[in-house]
Structure formats: structure tokens, C-alpha cells
Amino acid sequence: MEVIVVAHSKGGTGKSTIIWNLAHFIRSLDKPTIIIDLDFQQTQHYLHRIRTLEGLTNPQNDIPVFRPQTADALINTLENFSDHYILIDVGGYDNDINRIAISWADKIVVPLSDSITDVLGFKTFENILKEIDNPFINIVLNNIHPLTKNFNTIKEAIGSNEDIKLLDTVIRTRKIYKTTMGEGKSVFDINHTVAQDEIKGLYYEIISN
After folding, report:
1. Is residue 36 within 8 Å of 63, Cβ to Cβ?
2. What is the spatial distance between Cα 197 and Cα 194, in angstroms, rounded to a whole number?
3. pLDDT for residue 187
4. Which of 5, 48, 51, 116 has the greatest number of beta carbons closer than 10 A?
5. pTM for the whole thing?
């Protein structure tokens, strides 16, 4: 159906949080969904393990997590689940397997805060994307302070590149994201409509581009 890659060359930008919650929203729409975890921290793998141990998975809502270790294994997974939504958590480093994931993506999402280190890391990542034949990316403002309204630093970093779209969705800093993930849950397992609306907004904006 769709291969959605969430990537950034810098760690700690919120890739795993977005992947986890976005995947669970898509699954809640009764769409077959898997996660491919290419991050060396294996966050998706451990979250799924916690979720399973807590008895929160069942055949109707389970989202399998795959951890291919080679380029061939990644391609096989992509081909075997071509009728699924495939969400890929790309680790914060540059290597062949991550580049293959990006090259297969139907949608590339880059989370970006207004931190100068995130912005500088994005410029490095932008250079990597220029070398891959899949340049169009969506920037989602992520981990943004609830009171922050000015995003000029990010807009200046993006510049006038027509291959980069700054999404309208803004995902704010919320304790609930960490709390739920620590329990193997997503924000769709609880009643937190504000966080849910942020993830829903990201999904519908991504698929409309």
C-alpha cells in the first residue's frame, strides 16, 4: 500500500515516537500494517515486546516488527508485505541498508524541532538525500514547546527547495507520548484526544501529498 520512512541523520529527534503512534493509528483504521526497525537502539522491537508481555496485542490489532540485518532481507520484507502499510524507523546514521529503505519510500517524513542541533543535522541529512533518487520529503515539526509559534529558523533551513514540504501538523512536547510508550501503548490506547489529533493530522497530511 504505502512505504512510509521516518528518518533523520541525528538521533533523538522523535522518529521512534512518530513511527509507533502513526502505525497504531493506521492499524486502528483496519489497514494491515507492519513496522521495520532499522534503528540500532531497536526501540520498535522493545516496544512491541513490552506490548506483548502486557497482553495488549491480539490478532486484530497486532503490528509485527521486523529487524532485517541485510539489504537483501530488507528488500524481501518490503516485497513480501507489499499489500501492507510499511513504516520504517531509519536509524540516525548513513549506511547502505538505510539508503535502500529511503529509496523504496513512497513518503519520507523528517521530524524536526527548533533546536539548532536538529536543524544542523537536517542539513547534513539533506545532502544525503540528494544522493538518493527519491528526494521529496515532508518535514513535520516535532517535540515543539506548547507555546512556540515562531518557526523561522526551520523555514530558513528549508529554504526554497521544491523537494521539501513543511507540513502544517505540529507535534508538541507532551509527557503522554513517553508515558504510553513506556507501557507498550500508543496514544490511541488511551483517551488523549489532543495527542491523537496530532498523529491523525500527520497521517492525513502525509497521504494527501
Report:
1. no
2. 5
3. 98
4. 5
5. 0.94
